[in-house]
Amino acid sequence: MTLTVPRRVTAAAALAALALGGLTGTTASASPTGGTAVAAPDIPLANVRQHLTDLQAIATANGGNRAHGRTGYKASIDFVKAKLDAAGYTTALQTFTSGGATGYNLIADWPGGDPNQVIMAGSHLDSVTAGPGINDNGSGSAAILETALAVSRAGYQPTKHLRFAWWGAEELGLIGSKHYVNNLPAAERTKVKGYLNFDMIGSPNPGYFVYDDDPTIEQTFKDYYAGLGVPTEIETEGDGRSDHAPFKNVGIPVGGLFSGADYVKTAAQAQKWGGTSGQSFDRCYHASCDTTANINDTALDRNADAVAYAIWNLSGATTPPTGTVFENTADVSVPDNGVAVTSSVTVTGIAGNAPSALKVGVDIVHTWRGDLIVDLIAPDGSVYNLANRTGGSADNIQETFTVNASTEVANGVWKLRAQDKASSDTGYINGFKLTFP
Ligand code: TRP
Ligand code: ZN
Ligand code: CA
């Protein structure tokens, strides 16, 4: 098994070294590759269904719709936002104006992951004025909401950064998603490595359509469906008719799923997918009958699971291969009888918690090790003491400590802290290494 080791200086390590008068070593942080992919969870259909019931109740209480500029839209946004806030997301409401009314996009970021590699999933949350919009697009909205909540429940720590979005005013011409993309600085656009769109994924007479856009995203969805033994077709019911279009137009890789709108299911399609040929995939498309009764549970369940499958597989968390090493070899001088100093390594791409036998390699060059207090500091600030002025007048602390770090989330910035507590002898941190067994 080969590890590719991208070399980059961790900001914290560079700062620590600079503060002490110069960077003399090199800093490497390894991202593990070749580990076992973390399996996506099954998304409970009942939870997705409950979100649809709640969105239906919102429409019913607000004149029968959840359209842009109507009270039912804002209530829908507030409903989704409250769930995400409670689950630990960083949420932001983005406002815009369309047709004289204020519109809202909701953007929810899951803390962590590489900020330079963002995987996004989005769905429009507005309905047309004619009805409650439960298939179009409560279905996509509820599926990405439940996937976001599943990320939180799993304590999922992907390599890439995850962002979820609920768009306003799609039905008026992709207004909300265009607004978001137009206001995303060029430097931020290039960080978005994939945008996944979910618009109408529980159609009552369903087809299983995959967008034919970015090949990796498309293949990910096809793999999921191949695993179920369900055939798919390429989405052809109007390319660019949903919120992926603004992303695609600026060169962001896009993909998505669709279960059909007002096109008619052919005999061949009914043959392979069941349902009724000669009838629309969604006879209630943009109509008052697009209620909770206008959903095929099998399609909704499969597509919600496909959302999670794609999010997990495209965001790249792996359990580390044995012996994954994260190391910082930048020298950090330890001032004589002075302040504590630290050397940092950034652990990325490791699912879940740190191991119960985390190997902490300490290399401190010093002329009197009995002067030193040495601690390992976990990303959340928890302190594990490694040496407390032991060893008397002997030189150096060069040994590997085993730490039970199983209550700590693995990903994040780990620090080795050293402080010299007596005068005359001095030294430096020569290296700090974490090995995942
Ligand atoms: N809201 C979309 C629209 O009215 C629904 C739709 C139709 C769609 N065809 C599509 C969504 C193709 C995704 C892909 O245009
Ligand atoms: Zn739609
Ligand atoms: Ca000293």
List descriptors.
2 domains, 437 residues, binds zinc ion, Jelly Rolls, 10 helices, elongated, 20 strands, 6-stranded antiparallel β-sheet, binds calcium ion, binds tryptophan, alpha+beta
What does this structure look like?
By secondary structure, the protein is of the alpha+beta class. The protein folds into two domains: 12-319, 3-Layer(aba) Sandwich (Aminopeptidase); 324-436, Jelly Rolls (Sandwich), CATH 2.60.120.260. The chain is built from ten helices and 20 strands. It has an eight-stranded mixed sheet, sandwiched between helices. Helix 7 links the parallel strand 8 and strand 9. Helix 2 runs antiparallel to helix 3 (71-86), helix 4 (134-154) crosses helix 10 and helix 7 packs across helix 10 (297-315). The protein is elongated. Residues 1-34 have low confidence and may be disordered. It binds tryptophan (TRP), zinc ion (ZN) and calcium ion. Tryptophan (TRP) is lined by residues 136, 199-200, 235, 237-238, 241-242, 258, 261.
Any idea of the CATH class of the largest domain?
Alpha Beta
Rg over C-alpha atoms, rounded to the nearest angstrom: 26 Å
Find the CATH topology of the largest domain: Aminopeptidase
Q: In total, how many beta strands? A: 20
Q: What is the string of SSEs from the N terminus onward?
A: HEEHHEEEHEHHEEHEHEHHEEEEEEEEEE
Judged by helices, strands and strand pairing, the structural class is alpha+beta
